[in-house]
Amino acid sequence: KKDLIILGIETSCDETAAAVVKNGREIVSNVIASQIESHKRFGGVVPELASRHHVEQITLVIEEALKKAELSFEDIDAIAVTEGPGLVGALLVGVNAAKAIAFSRNIPLVGVHHIAGHIYANRLVKEMSFPLLSLVVSGGHTELVLMKEHGDFKVIGETRDDAAGEAYDKVARTLHLPYPGGPHIDRLAHEGAATIDLPRAWLEDDSYDFSFSGLKSAVINTLHNAEQKGISIDPKNMAASFQASVIDVLVTKTLKAAKEFKVKQVLLSGGVAANKGLREELEKAFAPIMDIELVIPPLVLCTDNAAMIAAAGSILFEKGKRSQYSLNANPSLDI
Ligand code: KG4
Ligand code: ZN
């Protein structure tokens, strides 16, 4: 049987990315142009700036992905592109680049949901076994997705307000740490102790949803009140306490859902998967459970990349999915 060669394209946020993946599991090339340095001085991603960077980078990144793979467009069986969710102006750059190549070279086009991509990042590391549960935690998403087979996604829980990474970034800002704040809080948390009492939003007993905005407000209020009373709070202890609250809720709900749905695998992905505390606590929670395998991909596959889009696109392509040239960016696409 001939190899299936997919070109993936991802531009939903602030990384311009292209990758070539063979047979859905093997990374042939994976090119990522990050814009973080440009957005840093604004303390977050500036959508208009993101679009402009994507326009400048997209052709170069795609060419480099092909060059590194030592392939040309003639070798590509399909182009998989993130169609949503994300920043609309950013998504449009990838979608239009993909459509232009697909049309001019007569290559099939497959639109991919960004979260499906994050989940399929795991398949570049480990073959999936179903049913499985995926925890996707990034700057834009906090979702628990149940899969019974390839291409079948059921969101059993999601954030009702801020995403986990968003909460990290906002709390980091109040602690005067640079953007993106997640890694800085993670580092400080390991130097401090969780001595400050902060809330955990468990929500209803049977809910797998999340909420992080109350926690964020509690951090801000605690710092503010302390300042007014002239008490100083060690940022290390605040970071440790905040991190403990986030991880407690994420790990507890993931463990509960994994048991309830009797899954064979639990997959972690999204930028917050870089968090040392989260990795450690998940490993601790699942280590005693012999029939559930915990999969945590390397960091470069957890944050936004195009290999994950190509991996998800491979499965969708094999299942017969083809997108029309009318494919459009959809900032609030459902999975
Ligand atoms: O997946 P990603 O690169 O982009 C999005 O799709 O959002 O995730 C970025 C998010 C940011 O909010 C960043 O602060 C967070 O991931 N992050 C972390 C860590 N490293 C990155 N959060 C907590 N701990 C970390 N070590
Ligand atoms: Zn993402």
What features would you describe in this structure?
Its main location: cytoplasm. Fe cation binds at residues 114, 118, 304. Its cofactor is Fe(2+). The chain has helices spanning 36-40, 47-69, 88-105, 114-120, 164-174, 182-191, 213-228, 235-260, 276-286, 299-302, 307-318, and strands at residues 5-10, 15-22, 26-34, 78-84, 109-113, 132-137, 142-147, 154-158, 265-269, 293-295. By secondary structure, the chain is an alpha/beta fold. It has two domains: 5-120 and 302-318, 2-Layer Sandwich (Nucleotidyltransferase, domain 5), CATH 3.30.420; 128-296, ATPase, nucleotide binding domain (Nucleotidyltransferase, domain 5, 2-Layer Sandwich), CATH 3.30.420.40. The strands form two sheets. The protein has a five-stranded mixed sheet, sandwiched between helices. A five-stranded mixed sheet has the order 8-7-6-9-10, with helices on both faces. The two termini are 31 Å apart.
Short structural description:
This protein is α/β, with parallel strands linked by helices and 335 residues long.
Helix content: 40-55%
C-alpha Rg, in Å?
Answer: 20 Å
Find the CATH topology of the largest domain.
Nucleotidyltransferase, domain 5
Classified in CATH, the superfamily of the largest domain is: ATPase, nucleotide binding domain
Q: What is the count of distinct domains? A: 2
Secondary-structure element order, as H and E? EEEHHEHEHEEEHHHHEHEHH
Keywords: Acyltransferase, Cytoplasm, Iron, Metal-binding, Transferase, tRNA processing
Protein name: tRNA N6-adenosine threonylcarbamoyltransferase
Pfam family, one: TsaD
Subcellular location: Cytoplasm
